[in-house]
Description:
The structure holds two protein chains of two kinds. Chain A has strands at 3-6, 11-14, 19-21, 23-26, 32-38, 44-50, 56-59, 62-65, 75-77, 86-93, 101-103, 107-112. Chain A is mostly beta strands. In chain A, strands 2, 5, 6, 10, 11 and 12 form a six-stranded mixed sheet that branches. In chain A, strands 3-9-8-7 form a four-stranded antiparallel sheet, with no helix packed on it. Chain A has a two-stranded antiparallel ribbon with strand order 1-4. The mean pLDDT of chain A is 92. By secondary structure, chain B is mainly beta. In chain B, the strands form two sheets. In chain B, strands 2, 4, 5, 6, 9, 10 and 11 form a seven-stranded mixed sheet that branches. A four-stranded antiparallel sheet of chain B has the order 1-3-8-7, with no helix packed on it. Chain B starts with a strand and ends with a strand. The model of chain B has no long low-confidence stretch (mean pLDDT 91). The interface between A and B is medium-sized, with 22 and 21 residues.
Amino acid sequence: GDSVTQMEGPVTLSEEAFLTINCTYTATGYPSLFWYVQYPGEGLQLLLKATKADDKGSNKGFEATYRKETTSFHLEKGSVQVSDSAVYFCALMGASTGNQFYFGTGTSLTVIP
Amino acid sequence: GAVVSQHPSRVICKSGTSVKIECRSLDFQATTMFWYRQFPKQSLMLMATSNEGSKATYEQGVEKDKFLINHASLTLSTLTVTSAHPEDSSFYICSAVEGGRDEQYFGPGTRLTVT
């Protein structure tokens, strides 16, 4: 079945460091891919998404490219800020699963000044 | 953008009582709503899928008689935790899908504590 494997955390970075959070997926067909962010005590917010191969989603300095050849959707940011501290979830929506999402386990990011 | 609200945001109840959590889509009609449960420092676990006007579809291992879901309108779904126990304490999150779109909009979550 469809699934998402996400880099385990926690990840601690200094401000302005480069961030990569790895995400790979298993799915039949052509799923849509998402990154969500969850701040402490809050629900999930969509960070970015990509719906087809080679699409690049971007938002707030974060980017991720849908790589079908490597079945990956790694999240990157060139210069993290303290305010980026949160938990990041990679997710996919299968092409034939009726809007059902499959989430990765989440990666906790802490950015220190 | 699409907004999904949940009420209440936090609730504390005594063991054996029932608690109702509401999930509303504020500016769109949600043909499908999902209910998730999130344990501390863990990912979201899908509990059930709710389609307006029909019975919810529960994931394996989720007790349908304990977690009652009602999706009575295109903007409202409710989750009732019946005869709550301390092990039901968790963060419950709903999401909603607008008809014909592929994006889920998440509510802010409800923190349930059963004493």
